[in-house]
Amino acid sequence: MNPRQSGSIAHWAACVAIFFLPLAIIGTPAVLAQPGRAGEIVRAPKPKPIDWKKTTDEAVKLLSQYIQINTTNPPGNEIRAAQLLKEKFLSDGIPATIWQSAPGRGIVAARLRGVGRKRKTLILLSHMDVVPANPRQWSVAPFSGKVKDGSVWGRGALDDKGPGVIEMMAMLAIKRAGILLDRDVLFIATGDEETGGRQGAQWFADNEKDIYSDAGYLLNEGGAIMVRPNGRQLYTVSVTEKAPLWLRLVATGPTGHAADPPEETSVTHLVRALGRLIDYRPKIHVLQPVADYFNVLAHIDHGPRQWLNLAVALRDPAFAREFLSMPYQNAMVRDTIAPTVLMAGPTINELPETAYADVDCRLLPGENPKRFMETIRKVIADKSIKIQVLLTSPATSSPQKSSLMRAIERLAREDKARSVPTMISGFTDSRFFRQHGVISYGFIPIELSAADERGIHGVNEHIGVSQLGDAIRRMVTLLEIFGGRG
Fold first, then answer.
1. What is the pTM of this model?
2. Please, what's the b/e burial string for 442-468 (b: 16 or more CB within 10 A of its CB; e: otherwise)?
3. Domains of the chain
4. Percentage of residues in the chain with pLDDT exceeding 90?
């Protein structure tokens, strides 16, 4: 073979290597641009099969340990939980870092590197803090992480330590199997979510932008695979959420002995104001994701035909009364007002100078908080009541169509299920990343029934072992679709 022919063949082989390079990125017979002789095609190792039972058993053990670390917020003290997660990542060779936004307030991040033609990084977000749990109301100790009756029990099993373990174990399974993704996956677990996120996701999003500057997408709590009463599955993907507006109503009045009360006291002012407030009914507004959600439910549940066009149906007073009588449905179509904390005097026979009530308001996307506050003042109709803003944050939304949404839709089709974008009546840490341009969806591929949902912030919170394992498997598949074979 003459030199000219040899050069042509080498050139041809190089072209072949370039042609096949995308296969290294998307999965099947992969070719990696690894060092070798000129024109040599180097095939990537075939991914190893994942032992799902072993992976699930490992997840159960990890979640049990995670729950045993009491991260009730306040005070949170998430640093020990962050260390547990960091050590787990490091043991598998995935770099991980811990930050402290304040003493004891831990945040941990770990990055699984992609290969080849890298696309925008996907963030897998969760939070380590949990709400309080009263042991007297539980059938098991809420921070025992006990495994019994085929479930892992404890505060955080579903909100949000279980989802965090699902995200982590999916990343570990992908790395161990040698599955190649063409984008990085960035795990972030924050603290302080349950009390607003100032020392958690908000702090991280504002102060550590370099860590996620290459991120274009995010998955977080807020949506799941809902198991309907007829057994059918619905993949609900939160694309928007209501805005929090936490208020404190403060009333003042004369002090003195309660045996000789004046006509007006701090407590009477406050009680009357609260009475007018809870009687107020904000206007109904049906957003498009909410309309779409109930339309899909009408089809898969054979629900009321009015759900096919909810905005029109709610003009009928009789249907509106029935629909709004369900708290969840009411919260999906109007602003809500919920007094949650009442504080006044320390003793029964003394008139307190000050009484206050904390009120949790949740505003629909598009509602102006200042205008809402003006309405509240008019409703209260008592100028002596001072209104303090404890927390406010704008409602945020992400597009209903994107490559990540298409990946979720594909996962649903492979599961022979329907998917639908929707709104959640609560708020999550996703809002902090949406504000920085990251397309963020509330979706963790875990099957949840209505009974499961009642455990979130409730008693006897638990997650089934099979639920946990199936969710990890689905998350691995989703990451493959979005970062590999899709």
1. 0.88
2. bbbbbbbeeebeebbbebbbbbbbebb
3. 3-43 (no CATH), 52-238+395-485 (3.40.630.10), 243-392 (3.30.70.360)
4. 88
